[in-house]
Amino acid sequence: MIEIKNLSKTFRTAEGEVEALKDVSLSIPDGDIFGIIGMSGAGKSTLVRTINMLERPTEGSVIIDGVDMGALSEAELRKKRREITMIFQGFNLLMQKTCLDNICFPLRLAGISAPQARERALALLETVGLADKAKAYPAQLSGGQQQRVAIARALATDPKVLLCDEATSALDPTTTASILELIRSINEITGITAILITHQMSVVESICRHVAILDGGVIAEVGEVGEVFSHPKSAAARRLVFPDGDAAASLTRDRDEHILRVVFNGNQATATPLIAHMAVEKGIEANIAYASTKTIDGREFGSMLLGIRGGDNVLREAIGYLTRNPDILAEEVHLDD
């Protein structure tokens, strides 16, 4: 269990103090795939770097398996960090060393003999699908392959926690999907706790079980990914889950048109043509400006923006009709939502 308690971080700059994190508290269960998401400048990277004390918090504590990371001596902290490894957007491989040597490097630092380190590194290259790249150098690999080597190196010391700081941001969508699937597979096989820092909701939706939304250094919302997607409570969560502001603006062309957001939670609700049924049964026509469907943790979720004309009574009738199904959320949207 990772417990982050009342954690704050203030940086002192030439222009004055900057509060990067403000009283952040989180609990991350063992074996979870946990997403921390927010826009640029939200404090995500600072937060992940406090977990292994690469960044010392100004206040608060990080407790891993009952151990207060901030109370450890430098020697104790170096030993503990073998259990908490990181991968980054820039891969951070040693360019003058082969893939095999890159993976052997942390093992040799840990005092593992050269033959044992080589055996472990070869097995890890097999795990990440690069058994034939042992003698290759990073410059000879694609971005996705370099990140796989970085993951293998991170796993070398058999860690309990894998921190991923924007690890797929430099990759194309297809390569991103393959790297996320690799992390999921490693999590299932080893039980490692994976913490993903990202600004992309698609990354969280595709792999994470829980998510915390960071906004201006503050936790705006935290919960199961499916719940946050289908019922976002904070303004920060709504901006990330529903990136449909341009579509909303296109619907507000006269005062008689209301904007209605409809969220479908579950396979049956997503597959039902409710908008067509509403038009036939209630005579309420809807202008669909935006629609999307996603699969999260094996369940189908969908959302759409509708333009409803006819005044407040028609809007209320449409909401009532749609929300007869308990797996559907319908609510009016304003441009400042």
Strand proportion: 25-35%
| N→C terminal distance | 35 Å
What is the mean pLDDT?
Answer: 86
What does the largest sheet look like?
Answer: 6 strands, mixed
Poorly predicted regions are none
Structural class: alpha/beta
Keywords for this entry:
alpha/beta; 37% helix; four-stranded antiparallel sheet; 337 residues; 31% strand; elongated; six-stranded mixed sheet
What does this structure look like?
It is a single chain. With 337 residues, the chain is α/β, with parallel strands linked by helices. 37% of the residues lie in helices and 31% in strands. A hairpin with a 2-residue loop joins strand 1 and strand 2. The longest helix has 18 residues. The chain is elongated, with a radius of gyration of 23 Å.
